[in-house]
Structures are given as C-alpha cells and as structure tokens.
C-alpha cells in the first residue's frame, strides 16, 4: 500500500485538476434536436470551405470587456483579430473613446451600450453579449445601424438541470434543514417524512432546453416524468406529455418550472394551482421570479399543503452581492426565510465554470462566423441570414454582404451592380426597417471587388457594405 499523501498536497492536486485545460464544453445536447437552424448548419460543416477575409476593413479590432472567458480570447487570437482586453467594464467616457474605431465589442451585463455610446462607434459591425440577457444594449438603435447583437441563451441549461436534480433530492430528504441545524450545533437524526425519489412522479412545466435535460437525468433515478408545454414536443426517454397544467399538478409529487417570462406565465402558479397539487408535494422554481405568486406559496407552505419548496429566482433581486437581500425587496422573503424545508439560492442555477466557458466558446464562434462568413444566425436584433460556405477551390469567388434599409427597389439596384458576374447564390431577409442581403458571386478580380464595393457604398439605401474574399 502506498504511504498516505499529506492533505496540503492533495489540495494542490485538486486545484491543478480543476485548472487543467479541459476539452471544449458542449452546449445543450437537446439543442441539436430542438433547433432546426443549427441542424441544417451542421450539415454544411464537413464540406471543405474557403477561408474568407474581410475586404477594406483592415485588421479586425475588438474591444473585450468584463473579464470574458479565456475560451473566447483564444478563439479571437487564433483568428488573428486585434484584441484589447479589460477585466472590468469601462466608465462611459472611456468607453466612448475606445468604441470609436473598433469593429466588435464583447461585453457581459455591466456595460451599458446605449444609443449615446453607440453613436460614436463608426466601424462597429457586431456586439457579443457573453451572457444570457441583452437588455444592457439598445437593440433597436444597434439594429437600425446594421450592428448585429449576439448572445448565448442556452449554454447553462445543463447547469440548471443538474441543480434542479440536486434540489429534488435535497427537498425529499430535508437536507437543507439538517445542514442548517448541524451548522447551529443541533444533531437531529430522523427519517419521518424523508423519502427516496425513486418511483415518485416529477412534473416538468416547460419542456425546453432545461426541462428536457432534467427529464433524462431524473428518469435515470427511477422517477416517472410528466411534462406540460404549450408546444407538442417529442418526449426524451419515457416521459409523457400531458395536455393540461392541472393534469400535471394533480399527478406530480414534485413540480418544477422551466418556462420563459411571458404575460401567460406571470403568476402561473398561484392559489388555485397550488390547491390542485397533491398534499405534501414540492414546488421548485428555477426559471423566473414572476412565475410563482410568492404570497400564495408562503400560505401553502404554512398550511402544510406543500412539504417544501426551492427557489432560485425572485420577483425582485439585488443588483450586487452582499447582505441586502432582506432589505425590503419584497415583503414575503422574511416569511420564506423562517419556513421549514425551503431552499433559497441567489439565482445561481446557471452559474458554473462550465457554463461560462461554453458561453465564451459559443459567442466567440458566432462572432467570428459573422465577421468571416457574414452568417447572422442567432442575432437577436437583426435579420438572420446564412449561406453555405464558398467551396475551397472557388478562387475568384467573393461574398458580398449588404445591410440596407428595407425599402422597395434595393435588390434591383444591387443586382444591376453585380450583373457582370455570375451570382452563385443569394439570400435576403428583413427585420423591421433593416434588411440583410448576402450574395456569392464568381469571376471577380481584386479591381472588380474595389469597384463593386464603391458602387454599393454609393447607393442611397446602404447601411453597411462588407465584402469577403
Ligand atoms: N436560474 C437560472 O440561473 C436560469 C438559467 C438559465 C435559464 N433560466 C430560465 O429558465 C427558463 C427556461 O429556460 P430554457 O432554456 O429551458 O428555455 P426554452 O425556451 O428552451 O424552453 C422553455 C419551454 O417553455 C415552453 N413554454 C412557454 N410558455 C409556456 C407556457 N405558458 N406553458 C407551458 N410551457 C410554456 C416553451 O414552449 C419551451 O418549450 C427561462 O425562463 C430562463 O430564463 C434560469
């Protein structure tokens, strides 16, 4: 037998293990089945493609703020972009100065890209939000000025699903309470009203990226899974879709919510729905704070109708970490804190190292696809346009990207300008006042490119012209 390793050495090797480079983290596996756009793009991935570079923009300059994950920086460096990197957001004046000549800016939630900031950005073509939300950007202003905004809404699905799985067991065994008691020096060994989850029924409301992953994880524990969704969705594993929320509520031992925030989901779980649930059932909300009527939940817990609840999201949440959560954000928080078997977490469902890393990979790839191929799939404020890549042996072919006002007559004018060349393929889409036309043409030499670029730049509807060759 080998001699024991001192604990100090063990902790060093743990640190190294967690820091060692990992394989790239995949995004949600369910996205391949849910997202047909991704699926069709994947079909073209294996074809040898010509590597394109932008004409006339010079080197691509990027301003990357808020300590965005290393995975993104490595993608940008590999592509040869010039990256200016800051660990924090910048004060508005400095941001205005820095944004003036960059082509791309990468941010998280703290940098506010208002119209006042964006109007100084003369070369900006894209904004990468390395997070879920995009409220920090004036999306309308950006869209109207041809600036595509990308984010990463689904990279943390697995993290939320795993946390929900853990909470189901924690609630069922009252582990949150036992742990708090031990921290207070109380030994309270008991088995009354503590259950295995095997054989119990889980009801999932919203069978999207998170809900569907959770169904697979919990079925492997021997749970029976029901789900309710406004869409008719194919079940993963042996889970069963039910046709009404009431049917799900009245048949489930655990109910977990994974719907978006919409007018229909506001207070989706209130007194009538709680009354419909089985006596002694558990409720979990890791989606949005507006979905559960908190006073009604407090009442149901106090009356013993529910045996426990887990909340990660709240009707109001503090802006920063610290001890302010009790200071009047919403009154019922004080009561929630006193109730037995109620797990409260500070909106951490999606907060893991893996999710951050996956966000870095996804947004940096989306941005580089937009810069080098013009593909705007996934943009939140902008027409989504994609064409399969130019074949690697197409030497004299170029891709013309033309963002323009959405008015009649544009296609006629543009195709007139391109008419000396063969149009290999062409696709256009519009969103509001802005349209995006992507055209691959062949038999083009460098002088032609310059000529086409200048003519397109001279058209009255043009917002941004880019040519990739
Ligand atoms: N706690 C966290 O940190 C965290 C992290 C990520 C996501 N979220 C939240 O989790 C929720 C789900 O995320 P997702 O990625 O699975 O979303 P998704 O869009 O993939 O899935 C949502 C599902 O809900 C369904 N749905 C919409 N309205 C409905 C309704 N009225 N009734 C029933 N079903 C309805 C949709 O059809 C869809 O299948 C979102 O609200 C998201 O903001 C929370």
TrEMBL record:
A Pfam family of this chain: 2-Hacid_dh_C
Superkingdom: Eukaryota
GO biological process, one term: L-serine biosynthetic process
UniProt keyword Acetylation present: no
Involved pathway(s): Amino-acid biosynthesis; L-serine biosynthesis; L-serine from 3-phospho-D-glycerate: step 1/3
Keywords: Amino-acid biosynthesis, NAD, Oxidoreductase, Phosphoprotein, Serine biosynthesis
InterPro entries: ACT-like_dom_sf, ACT_dom, D-iso_2-hydroxyacid_DH_PdxB, D-isomer_2_OHA_DH_cat_dom, D-isomer_DH_CS, D-isomer_DH_CS1, D-isomer_DH_NAD-bd, NAD(P)-bd_dom_sf
Alphabetical list of CDD domains matching this protein: ACT_3PGDH, PGDH_3
The EC number(s) this enzyme carries: 1.1.1.399, 1.1.1.95
Domain ACT positions: 399-469
Catalytic activity: (R)-2-hydroxyglutarate + NAD(+) = 2-oxoglutarate + NADH + H(+); (2R)-3-phosphoglycerate + NAD(+) = 3-phosphooxypyruvate + NADH + H(+)
Top enzyme class: oxidoreductase
Molecular function terms, GO-annotated: 2-oxoglutarate reductase activity; NAD binding; phosphoglycerate dehydrogenase activity
Protein's job: Catalyzes the reversible oxidation of 3-phospho-D-glycerate to 3-phosphonooxypyruvate, the first step of the phosphorylated L-serine biosynthesis pathway. Also catalyzes the reversible oxidation of 2-hydroxyglutarate to 2-oxoglutarate.
Family (UniProt): Belongs to the D-isomer specific 2-hydroxyacid dehydrogenase family.
Name of the featured protein: 2-oxoglutarate reductase
């Amino acid at each position: 037998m080998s001699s024991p390793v001192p604990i100090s050495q063990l902790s060093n090797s743990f640190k190294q293990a967690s820091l060692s480079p990992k394989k790239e983290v995949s995004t949600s596996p369910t996205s391949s089945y849910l997202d047909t756009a991704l699926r069709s793009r994947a079909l073209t991935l294996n074809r040898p493609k010509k590597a394109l570079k932008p004409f006339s923009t010079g080197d691509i300059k990027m301003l990357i703020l808020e300590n965005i994950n290393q995975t993104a920086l490595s993608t940008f460096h590999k592509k040869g972009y010039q990256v200016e990197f800051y660990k924090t957001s910048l004060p508005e004046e400095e941001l205005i100065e820095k944004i003036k000549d960059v082509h791309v800016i990468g941010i998280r939630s703290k940098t506010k890209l208002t119209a006042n900031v964006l109007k100084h950005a003369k070369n900006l073509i894209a904004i990468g939000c390395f997070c879920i939300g995009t409220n920090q950007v004036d999306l309308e202003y950006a869209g109207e000025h041809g600036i595509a905004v990308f984010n990463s809404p689904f990279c943390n699905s697995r993290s939320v699903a795993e946390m929900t799985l853990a909470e189901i067991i924690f609630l069922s065994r009252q582990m949150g309470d036992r742990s708090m008691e031990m921290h207070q020096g109380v030994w309270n060994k008991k088995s009354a009203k503590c259950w295995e989850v095997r054989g119990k029924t889980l009801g999932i409301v919203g069978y999207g990226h998170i809900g569907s992953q959770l169904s697979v994880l919990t079925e492997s524990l021997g749970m029976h899974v029901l789900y309710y969704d406004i869409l008719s969705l194919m079940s993963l594993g042996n889970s069963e879709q039910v046709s009404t929320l009431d049917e799900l509520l009245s048949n489930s031992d655990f109910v977990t919510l994974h719907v978006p925030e919409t007018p229909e989901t506001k207070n989706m779980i209130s007194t009538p729905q709680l009354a419909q649930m089985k006596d002694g059932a558990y409720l979990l909300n890791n989606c949005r704070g507006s979905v559960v009527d908190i006073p009604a939940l407090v009442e149901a817990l106090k009356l013993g109708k529910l045996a426990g609840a887990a909340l990660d999201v709240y009707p109001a949440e503090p802006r920063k970490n610290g001890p302010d959560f009790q200071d009047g954000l919403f009154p019922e928080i004080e009561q929630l804190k006193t109730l037995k078997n109620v797990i409260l977490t500070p909106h951490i469902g999606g907060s893991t190292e893996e999710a951050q890393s996956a966000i870095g990979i996804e947004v940096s790839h989306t941005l580089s696809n937009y810069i080098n191929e013009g593909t705007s799939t996934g943009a939140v404020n902008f027409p989504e346009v994609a064409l399969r890549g130019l074949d690697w042996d197409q030497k004299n072919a170029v891709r013309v990207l033309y963002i323009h006002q959405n008015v009649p007559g544009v296609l006629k004018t543009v195709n007139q300008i391109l008419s000396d060349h063969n149009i290999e393929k062409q696709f256009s889409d519009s969103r509001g006042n802005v349209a995006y036309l992507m055209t691959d043409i062949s038999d083009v030499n460098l002088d032609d490119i310059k000529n086409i670029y200048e003519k397109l730049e001279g058209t009255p509807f043009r917002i941004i012209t880019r040519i990739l060759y």
